[in-house]
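Notes, p. 3: input format for complexes.
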Amino acid sequence: MASDAEAVELIIRRLKEDRIPEAPFPEEIAEKKKRPRQVAFMDVNLCYPCGKCPEFCPVGCIEYLPEASLPGRGLSPVQDRFQECIGCFICVEVCALLTDYDAVRMYNTDFVEQLLGVEIGDNKPEPHVPAKAYEEYFSDGGSKSVRHLGQGSRIREKMTKEDRQAMGWAK
Ligand code: SF4
Ligand code: SF4
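Output follows (171 residues plus iron/sulfur cluster):
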């Protein structure tokens, strides 16, 4: 079975082949330099914080939420600082293909701006804006949930038999 790092290498190769619109190649950057077409949000009700997507986000914008943001939870889930997200899809694929949770979706940037009343620019904001749960919007069953409008894995259905074997992936 492939290690997580090897599996993520494979995921990145397949994402490149899939030509993500306007997304830069993640290994070439460490910080957002261009407004992405889509940004990620985690469904905090689905995230069992395995720690995989924070490890592999190329700009390090996924953080564990403070316990107070979701009272009563044993383990705090993760959420990304969407203003820093480059729209690379890695967290979506990592969660969909390397965990049982499928907690992450990508949302059109224009849509997110309207929904949250924010502007998403070419650079990350200074000072940085901490992540929030956004449970009502991006979690299944939230009071204003738009999770069904998000895009999940782009490559799951395109994985070859060899890919599946390489990843030790039986799903
Ligand atoms: S990979 Fe999925 S389950 Fe794991 S921390 Fe990220 S969002 Fe949560
Ligand atoms: S899509 Fe996910 S992995 Fe990529 S920059 Fe955004 S939060 Fe990080």
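The CA atoms of residues 3 and 167 lie 8 Å apart.
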